[in-house]
Amino acid sequence: MFINKKQKKSNSNKNKQLKAIKKTLKIIGTTLLSLFLILVITGSIVATALTVYVMNYMDSAPIVDLNNDNLSNTSIFYATNDEGENIPIYTMSGDVKRVPVNIENVPQHVQDAFIYAEDARFYYHEGVDFKRTFAAFANYIFSFWDNAQGGSSITQQTIKNITMDNEQSPTRKIREVFSALNLEKNYTKTDILEAYMNVASFHYNMQGIQTAANFYFDKDVSQLTIAEAACLVAITKSPKYNNPIDYPENNKARQQYILGEMYKYGAISSEEYEAALSEELTFIGYNKVTTDDTNEEAVVSSSPYTSYFVDAAIEDAIAVLMDEFGISRDVAQDKLKNEGYRIYTTVDLNIQSQLEEKFKDPKTLFMRDIDNLPQSAFIVMDYKGNVLGVVGGTGEKQESRGFNRATQAARSPGSTIKPIAIYGPAIQYDLISWSTVFTDEPLKIYNSITGLYEPYTFINDDGEEVTEWPSNYSNTYTYKDNYAWYYLSQSINTVAAQIGDRLTPEGSYNFLKDRLHISTLSPNDISRSPMAVGGMTNGIILEELAAAYQPFGNLGKYYEPTYITRITDSKGKVVIDHKYTEEQPFSSDSAYVMNRMLRKVTTAGTGTAAANGLTVEVIGKTGTSQDWENLLFVGLTPDYVTGLWYGYDEPAQMPYQSLPGSAAIWNNVFKDIANTGTKKTFDVDPTVVELHYCTKTGLIAGENCPESTDTGYYKASNSEVCTVNHSYDTEFEPADATQTPTH
Description:
The chain is α+β, with helices and mostly antiparallel strands. 40% of the residues lie in helices and 12% in strands.
């Protein structure tokens, strides 16, 4: 075959082009293969490194502590009702209100409401529901569904609520996923669900289903209906915009969705579903939900303000926590707000309620309608020091933890000082007896140089010399003789000063301070006037004054006043158990003699109005400070120790002619409560004897003594028999026992 040169040259060029193309393709292929291999190798290395990193991250991801003691828990104050049950009377919180509950006390339908509202596959995944997670991610990208689909499991939400890790980033989500997987390796599903129910938010700074049940429905979680449970769980998706108070429509829609899910998964029957949908909910709670414009915090309380008893119990709890842990007041208060203590109080709810009702209307209290009515305070305790009721002011209470005049105001005690600083110690030390004779005259002091008793003189605050002291409230002296019991019943100042001189001011001061625990004493009170007639530097707190009278109704025993029986932590462990430490400042016989002398005050003395209408014995002492600035009555029945004060916050003379006396006001306040007591008479000391006494000497009547006008009560150690021959003596004329008491 003939091929010309031109054709041969063309073929040669084609071959060269093919070779060039092949070479180029070979180079490209080799390059691409190399790049591919590099990518594969690099990818493998990266994947391996990433896998190692992920595995290490997963293994090292922190395990969230479901028993986190740093979580803020609400402290609860309890009272014991008539059935012996502990019922909450006040809750105290920090920034977050939280009352934990054990899952055993949460009904199954409440648990199911959480599960089917948030995580229907909760019991089937291992902490992360990847199916829901991927679906939520896909919906976020492609918007398959109208509503945003949440991907977080209950486990993940629990972690977020406990750690408060709200960072919006993929890193946070990865941390949460791995923490969830780790959490389920270390805790059971039951543990996790319990934790979630206790940390879920319910708006108004509240956490936990128990807190929400208390607040919205005034119920324990165990009492919630299916409809109520769904309503509360509905809040958790968006606490602010789903709460039923501010956004009832949102809450109702979410509640219906949850009920539908519960029915769909068989947690409730069709009948239960229909009943729950139609159930009308009533939101009562511990208090009407009130918010202000600056924050959205609501108070969980039975009243807008704490009661005076709760005020005092809070202060008592703070004090015992300070003492127990050796901490400052601020730290103790923070612990009380945030550590979920259970404080069991001594209050008698019936007594507290009756006192509060009396003190709401000053006209009712003072039995008068006059201008410028004074303030007043009242306290009642039993003979173990348990404070059963207290009010610290008249009228409607206007603030929580405000000034409490029964526990914080130190005022002049007037003549209520006499039994505890003068007569009681003098009986205790056998310096006087029931019928020791004294003369109603100004105090005279023994002059060791002359050997004579001379008038007691001193320079008063106005720089004037006083030569007759003390004055009686009648501003007169009878200069007649009478008996110790009489002078106490009539509250005669002169004889109190004379007995005080036997004791010495130091003796009275130390008795009050060391034996009766009066805390407001000043060294300046080691003087005749403060100890004998109550003219003290700082005054005495009503709570301490009443407590100091305990021994006179308790055969000499004293117990520290308390508002708390015990405090437990959030797990039920006893932190503080009040020690009822018995002290014996007075011997039993001394205390009973004083009991009978104080009985004379209410039967024949300044306090007779206290006994009106009473079916039980009452003993006590009236007191009036200088210029009628403070009026008091300390009254004891066989069951109760009480103290009443009234006066102006800024000391000023009261219109005493327009007001009933302190004993009458005490009777108005306490008569009905006193008559409910279980005991009618006081316990008797068997060693104290009731004997006739000599009307001339005050000693136990002997065979030559005139016929006794009265009988008295005597200790075996202080019952000397009169041996004087009175056959020809002039008849003794005691001071007029019918004079009108002035205070």
